[in-house]
Design goal:
Shape: flat
Number of helices: 8
Largest sheet: 3 strands, antiparallel
Strand order of the largest sheet: 2-1-3
Oligomer: single chain
Structural class: mainly alpha
Strand content: 5-15%
CATH architecture of the domain at 2-158: Up-down Bundle
Order of helices and strands: HEEHHHHEHHH
Radius of gyration: 29 Å
Length: 226
Amino acid sequence: MKVTNNICRILSLVLSVAALVLFFCPFATIVSNGKDIAFNGAQLSLGGGEFGLAKSADLLLCMIITILSAVAAGVTFTKKAKISRYTAPALMLFGAIYMLVVTLSNATYYVDTRPLTAVSAVRYEWAVPVVCIALFLGSAAAVAHLLLSDYIEVSETKGKVVLLKRIALFFRDYKSEAKKIVWPTLRDVAKNTLVVLVICLIIGAFIWLWDFGLGQLLNLILNIGA
């Protein structure tokens, strides 16, 4: 079971890194002035380059999510693995869904062609759907790692220690938060209630005056038109 868990963890890291590497592969081809110009995902996301291309905000967001996914998957091998076990699959799944929307949409919606002129067509290349697939598979591997890790933890302690620790932690946190509660005095409650009521009356009167004035103005305009 532990071997399978480690394989899933390694797979999630490898696939997230592979998805990031694919951003440096052909992502889209823009036909400008009758000439096909190929761009990789990094060029489309970050802009600039030979043509001074504008940034494609959606692709930039996808790239950032992919980078964070790879980082979170890598952190699962450190002492902070407990937190990243939940973060990695969430980021990868979000990135996969975002990339799926990009893949299934018209390329002109997500590829910023400025400042290229006479653009007649924009089409995605093979790397776009492959990034989507890599992120989906990576999220599946990360979820499997999460479930297997919890299963192994419960199995090794027979469920008793983990359950007792969680119950004790809940009541400890509840007690510490309860101590932070500051109950207002009767005078404070009365004063705050009065302030709220006065403000509500002022706002209500203001809205009523605006409504009455606009209503009278509308009636005047209608009477003039008649």
